[in-house]
Amino acid sequence: MRLSSVLLAVAGLASAVNAYWMGDIAHQGLAPFAGSGYQVFRNVKDYGAKGDGSTDDTAAINAAITAGGRCGQGCASTTTTPAVIYFPAGTYLISSSIVPYYFTMLIGDANTPPTLKATAGFSGFGLIDGDPYYTSNLNWVSTNVFYRQVRNFVIDTTNIAPGTAATGMHWPTSQATSLQNIVFNMPTASGVVHVGLFIESGSAGFLTDLTFNGGATGASIGNQQYTMRNLTFNNCKTAIIQLWDWGWTYVGLSINNCGTGIDMSAGGSSAINTGSVTLLDSTMTNVPVGILTAWTTSSSPATAGSLVIENVALNNVPVAVNGPSGTLLSGSSGSTTITGWANGHKYTPSGPTQFSGAITPNPRPAPLISGSQGRYYTRSKPQYESLAASSFVSVRSSGAKGDGVTDDTAALQNAINSATSAGQVVYIDHGLYRVTSTITIPPGAKIVGESYPVILSAGGYFNDINNPKPVVQVGTTSGQAGQVELSDFIVGTQGQQQGAILIEWNLATSGTPSGMWDVHTRIGGFTGSQLQVAQCPKTPGSSNVNSNCIAAYMAMHVTPSASNLYMENVWLWTADHDIDDASNTQITVYAGRGLYIESTAGTFWLYGTAVEHHVLYQYQLANTQNIFMGQIQTETPYYQPQPNALVPFSPVTSLNDPNFSTSCTGVSGNCAEAWGLRVVNSNNILVYGAGLYSFFNNYSTSCSTFTAGENCQSRIASIEGTTSNVNIYNLNTIGSQSMLNRDGAQVAYYNDNVNVFPSCVAVYKSG
Question: Could you tell me which residue ranges the Rhamnogalacturonase A/B/Epimerase-like pectate lyase domain spans (predicted)?
Answer without folding.
Answer: 41-263, 392-463
